[in-house]
Specification:
Layout lengths: L1 E5 L4 H12 L3 E6 L9 E5 L5 H11 L3 E4 L7 H18 L2 E7 L21 H16 L4 E5 L2 E2 L5 H10 L5 E2 L3 E2 L2 E2 H12 L5 E5 L5 E2 H12 L8 E2 L1 H4 L12 H6 L7 H4 L3
Parallel strand pairs: 1-2, 1-4, 2-3, 4-5, 5-6, 6-11, 7-10, 8-13
Antiparallel strand pairs: 9-12
Helix pairs in contact: 1-6, 2-3, 3-4, 5-7
The structure holds NADP nicotinamide-adenine-dinucleotide phosphate (NAP).
NADP nicotinamide-adenine-dinucleotide phosphate binds next to helix 1, helix 3, strand 5 and helix 5.
Length: about 270
């Protein structure tokens, strides 16, 4: 199988590439501003905001499947338009599509969100991820849309780096923002499970433990042997930012359907 990973220079995209190469697949991976570090990947530069370039690349590579990961937090043209361009090109090529979405498209509430709940975005990044989903589903109703949460792993994870920065007093973690972190290797394996499946539509793929960002900082302190007293915290409510507070994804459907076990943050960061 030929797998095209769009955003292979990213944290999740790189791990998807590593696992697919290890499984013996031909993997073509794209980068935009950095480079693809995974050995065995055929690297190509691509700007997903350029619709013609996306169509040309996909037509040339002729992938059996496409994993679409690109986003920029504050760039609608990358997060929303880019996702639509990739979906259009994948559909033209008749390729299976797995698109990466986010828990950020929900407004936030104490109760967990089920897989099929419609987006209710409250800030621009969430709105861009919601628009991406709408475009992808309209173009390719057979695509799988992976709604995930904070992606953790080693120090290359921006979420882990944020916790380390807060433990060093260089950043502050919210005590009132709750998420369900997921390990990058578990998430990548699930993405590849979905490539091999016919699952269509949104699917929650997150860890079973819901924690606040500040609680995650304490788990990181224990894991890295750092003094938890150094942890700087604040509240999202007092920051003036508009962001979803509590977003818990119920990932029981993914757990029942797919072979990869999604580990919780307490297990992942156990000292
Ligand atoms: N990280 C999280 O905690 C988290 C949480 C929920 C959902 N997600 C979703 O999961 C996915 C992967 O996240 P990640 O943390 O692995 O992302 P990441 O490490 O920031 O990687 C983003 C990728 O997008 C590429 N990209 C950016 N602008 C581009 C453009 N104009 N054209 C083509 N490619 C472009 C980057 O390429 P260059 O680096 O080469 O520029 C990089 O490969 C995203 O869709 C994100 O919305 C992430």
């Amino acid at each position: 199988m030929t797998l095209l990973v769009v955003g292979a220079s990213g944290y999740l995209g790189g791990e998807v590439c590593r696992q697919a190469v290890a499984a013996g697949e031909r993997v073509v991976g794209t980068y935009h501003s950095s480079g693809v570090e995974v050995p065995g990947v055929e690297a190509r530069r691509l700007d997903v905001t350029d619709r013609s370039a996306v169509r040309e690349l996909v037509a040339r590579v002729r992938p059996d499947a496409v994993v679409s990961t690109p986003y920029r937090y504050a760039e609608w043209t990358v997060t929303a338009d880019g996702a639509a361009h990739v979906a259009y090109a994948a559909a033209e090529a008749g390729a299976r599509l797995v698109h990466l979405s986010s828990d950020a498209l929900h407004a936030g509430r104490p109760e967990p969100y089920a897989d099929d709940e419609p987006p209710s975005p409250v800030f621009p990044y969430g709105a861009a991820k919601a628009a991406a989903e709408t475009a992808v589903r309209a173009i390719d109703p057979g695509a799988a849309l992976v709604r995930t949460s904070l992606i953790v792993g080693d120090e290359r994870s921006k979420q882990i780096r944020l916790c380390l920065d807060a433990l060093a007093g260089r950043a502050a973690l919210f005590t009132d923002e709750v998420r369900c972190p997921v390990d990058v290797a578990d998430l990548a394996a699930t993405v590849l499970d979905l490539v091999d499946s016919r699952y269509a539509g949104p699917l929650n793929v997150a860890g079973p433990d819901a924690v606040s960002r500040a609680e995650m900082g304490l788990l990181v302190a224990a894991r890295f042997g750092l003094d938890p007293a150094g942890l700087k915290t604040t509240t999202s409510a007092s920051s003036g930012l508009v962001r979803p507070a509590e977003v818990r994804l119920d990932s029981s459907r993914a757990a029942a359907l797919l072979p990869t076990r999604l580990r919780g943050i307490r297990e992942l960061l156990a000292p």
